[in-house]
Design goal:
This protein has one domain. Helix content is 75%, strand content 0%. It is built from five helices and no strands. Helix 1 crosses helix 4 and helix 2 packs across helix 5.
């Protein structure tokens, strides 16, 4: 989780001097929500694994980030542009995160057969 927030913070800091990208340059809101869900899952996995072997956990985290970006057919730059775009409206970014968390909770409930 700390790494995700670090990535977001770094992306925002580096993007402060530039204009926000136009909406056609960013990941769709629905796809971005799915991307955030995937990132939260690998970050949670990393947090558990780092206590056993931090070096291995960091390596696995990098591999899984690459895998996520490949599965979404994205580059890190696409993610950074999207963070920059959606962060121009903090309410929209909050909504994206809320929907991502809600989606993860619903997926967990489904896997446990909880209504």
């Amino acid at each position: 989780m700390k790494i995700l927030y670090s990535i977001l913070l770094i992306s925002l800091l580096f993007s402060c001097n530039n204009e926000p990208p136009k909406s056609n340059d960013v990941i769709s809101k629905i796809e971005f929500i799915e991307l955030i869900k995937s990132i939260h899952l690998i970050e949670a996995k990393y947090e558990v694994q780092k206590n056993k072997n931090n070096v291995t956990a960091k390596h696995q985290l990098r591999v899984e980030y690459d895998s996520i970006f490949n599965s979404f057919k994205l580059k890190v730059e696409d993610f950074e542009k999207s963070i920059k775009f959606y962060s121009t409206d903090s309410n929209e970014l909050d909504e994206i995160y809320d929907l991502a968390i809600e989606g993860l909770i619903n997926e967990k409930k489904k896997s446990l057969n909880i209504n």
